[in-house]
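Notebook B, p. 112. Complex prediction, attempt 2.
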Amino acid sequence: MLRVCLRGANAAARQCVCGKVAGHPPLQHCRRYTSAGDSGVSAGKIVAASLLTVGGGLGGTIIYAKWDPKFRSNVEKTVPYSDKVFGMTLGPPPPPVIVPKKPAKVEPLQISSVSEATKDSKQPKKEKKAKEAAPPPEEAPAVEEAPADAAAPPPPPPAQTIEEASAEAAHIISAISDVPSVPAPGTVDDASAPPPPPAAEPEAEAAPSAEAAALPAAISSNLDETLGSSAKTTMAAIGAQEAALAAIAVHTEKLKEAMDEEGAADTKSAQWRALEEALNERSKAVDEAGAALLRARDELEKLKGVITSAKDTNIDAARPQVLAAEENLHNMIVDLDKVVGKVQLAQSEAKIVSQYSDLVNEAKAQFQKELDSITPEIKASWKGLAGKLTTDDLNSLIAHAHRRIDQLNRELAEQRVREQIHIETALDQQKLEHQKALETAVLTALEHNREEMRLEQEKKVAEVREVMEAEMRTQLRRQAAAHTDHLRDVLKVQEQELRAEAEETLTNKMQEQETHYRRLTQEQLDAFTLDMNAAYARLKGVEEAIDSHVIAEEEARKAHQLWLSVEALNYSLRTSGADAPTEPLEAAALAVRESCADNEFAQALATSLPTESLSRGVYSEASLRARFQDVRKLARRVALIDETRNSLYQYFLSYVQAALLMEPEQERPPERLSPTDLDTFKLLSYACYSMERGDLELAAKLLNQLTGEPRRVAQDWLNEARLTLETRQAISLLSAYANAVGLGTTQAP
Amino acid sequence: MDEEYGRKWDRCLADSAVKIGTGLGVGVILSVLLFKRRTWPVAFSAGTGLGMAYSNCQNDFRSPYLLHGRMVKDQ
């Protein structure tokens, strides 16, 4: 476009320079130039505007991508290679935020912690159960020792109580968890090696689970519930009692301490205060223990009621469970009573100690009073006042002391006497109390024993029942076995009878079937042989027909082949060009000879083809006709020449003759040739006529009558004509023969 | 065969032309050289030439089975 502009500009310049003759063209040029320039400017504008837009779009995309990473990732996904551009301009993309993994991680920890917690909680139970084996041997002597030893030192009872408590707790826990199992080994009665609870559990559980029906299950669940609640309350009561025990022990200790030690005033007051607190605690603990005890007793009553109701339903399946529950109940009662007894002992001990402390306090107070009455100005703490006393005071003090001693001696004597009496009364009282305690203890022991007896009896009854049931089962089994044997025998006999019957019927049927079958097969065979013979005969006929057909077809095929080859030969005759001969007929003739190898006639015909036609081919009639005209002209011109007259002058003469002589070009040849017809011209006209009519043979015959030079001139043509005629004759004969053979081989419908 | 006839005539004419021409030429030369520019040698030679040609032609036509060879130069 620039070039155009330049050219235009130059042209315009030239035009302008060369005298503005043509006003329009330069203007046009200029206009074109200016329009080109305008378009150039606007094109520049367009280019600039487009560049600006593209740049702005790119920059905006990059800036926004920097601000919004999601947009950036979207663009990176959609537009290829944009990630590289962004990487170059903005740097690597920000890492994606990993938020949702945390809660998933937290949960498994929690679960594991929970599982761990459950694991931990299981262990103390197991530990307590493990302790069971150790405590029982120690428990029995400890329990027996505790009630007898009233002033036992503090450390052993707490430890023993702890062990007892642990044993009882284990026993109660086992009562909660394994209702149908054998009663827990932590009981006093089973001092011998207790069966390990885990081994007992599956045995006991298997038995009741095998016979679980709806009602026993309900009963057992009920029992479980009540057992559980009662065990809990008993535990609580025992705990409370223990606490009360501990509180009482603490209180007595503190009391003894307070009484025995004669320390400074402030320590004393502190001791008295501590004593008061301990007293408060003790009273509280005792009250709590009393309340818990009441609750526990209520629960135990409830349990007893449930057990009796379960017993009333009289279901065998629940019996072991009921027995176990009863035993558990009994044990719990025993434990409670034990603990209560301990608490009472402690309380009595505390009472004695308090009484003793009261007496001591009283004596101290009296002494203090006397001392004050004698020496009023002296304060309570007179021990450290040795330097302040006067001789009078000392004398009075000594006199008082002597008097006091006398008094005390007298009191001591009195006391001795009274002591005797007191001891006697105390002994009586003690005896009475002992009696009472003994009676209560005997009663409770009796009660316990009775309970145990009853439980044992029930257990024995259950065992005996089981044994009975087992025996019954064996007897029943025996009976069933006998029954099955009898049935077997009877069945055997029946089987034999039936078998014999069946066999008989079977043999009969078989015979029938056999005869029937034989008859059928015979018939079949006969029919079959008939069919076979007929088929064989037909087959023979068919075979003969086919053979004859084959022969006929073979003949037909050969005939067809011959015909085809002859047709091919015929066709090859037509392949001649305008002036060219046909293709050599060698191949076709060979094919013909092959196809009629066994036919002499055909062979003869095939071999009769002239060799020239085989090797060189023959001319077609049309070409011969065309050539004939030339031959005719020439023959006319040399009509006078023969062997005798063949000088040049004769040639000239004959030429003149041919020029001057007029004869009809075509003249119909007569049937018979007379000697006057043997004139060259006449012959030529006859030949021409016959040629025009397509009668090559006649023409050839006529031309054959030529003599002299015309003959020589027509010789070639004659030869060709003769060849053609021969070939055609042979081929027509062959085709006629082939047709005849073909016709002969066609089958009549 | 027709071509033979035509060829014969061609030969004949060519031959006669050559002979007559040669005769004329020879006659002219003779007349010029020997016979003091008389016309009778020319006519005589021409006639001789013609006669020879005629006789050749006649012979050629009379002997139809005589083949005419051609000299092939070996290279």
